[in-house]
Amino acid sequence: MKQNRKPKQRHTSKKRLSPICLAADDPAIIEKRSLHPNRVRDPNETEWVLKSGMHSRKYGDRVAKGTWVNFPVFSFTLEERATCPAHCSQFAICFGNRMSQPRAYRYRHGQALTDQLETEFQILSLEPETAPGTVVRAHTLGDFYSISYVSWWAEQLARHSSLHVWGYTAWTPDCHIGIAIAQVKRDFPNRFRVRWSNRPGEEDSVSVVSGLDKVPNDGSIVCPYDIQRVKNCAECGICWESRKHVVFLEH
Ligand code: SF4
């Protein structure tokens, strides 16, 4: 089968608003995998899965204000589509389609990944620099892939009081994985700040629009990073500090 066929692109006036949109018969869609399979690797003991936010233009390295102030930021990435619900509104236009650069590694999900993360959480909880608190942006790409994986997060949060998690999920609150996520949100309301995706207008959720003219006038907040009002998430913090609906611009 032909792999990595050049995807069809939408054409809009700004690069920011031109996602790479895969056709329904693209192998990456049919096989539920990354468009860049050579960027998917197994976790291994020679490198950290968690990457400092200082290497991310979007996240930033240390929270600048709010209840998580001064906590260093880390992130990690799963494989897009392989771990995501197929109903995700971004399934074909996932911004992972654009992430082909050499260092854009996705880590294969499973026991080896959670084992490695446990080791890293343990180290972070003991190091003087990170013991007071750390922020983990869960899944730059990808999603909570099973109920047991969600339960694993609950165990980590119970084990490490310094661990603070922020992210998004395309699972709905009433599906089996969504119900498990909602329970962790209730159990750790200030440390497990995972928002629901694709739920326009709803509190504690996010949605994506194709342009500023599509932002609803209902009190939703446009992500300040997307409109160049902040340098990075560490400087903003809306996603974990606020419950208001956040709107992202398609990219
Ligand atoms: S609203 Fe703020 S914290 Fe959320 S993604 Fe945008 S910049 Fe980051």
Write a structural description:
Helix content is 21%, strand content 16%. It has one domain (15-249). By secondary structure, the chain is an alpha/beta fold. Helix 3 (147-159) runs parallel beside helix 4 (176-187). Residues 1-15 have low confidence and may be disordered. The strands form 2 sheets. Strands 2-3-5-6-7-8-10-9 form an 8-stranded mixed sheet. Strands 1-4 form a two-stranded parallel ribbon. The protein has helices at residues 27-30, 111-126, 147-159, 176-187, 233-236, 238-241, and strands at residues 40-41, 51-52, 73-76, 106-107, 134-138, 163-169, 192-197, 205-209, 221-222, 246-249. It binds iron/sulfur cluster. Iron/sulfur cluster binds next to helix 5 and helix 6.
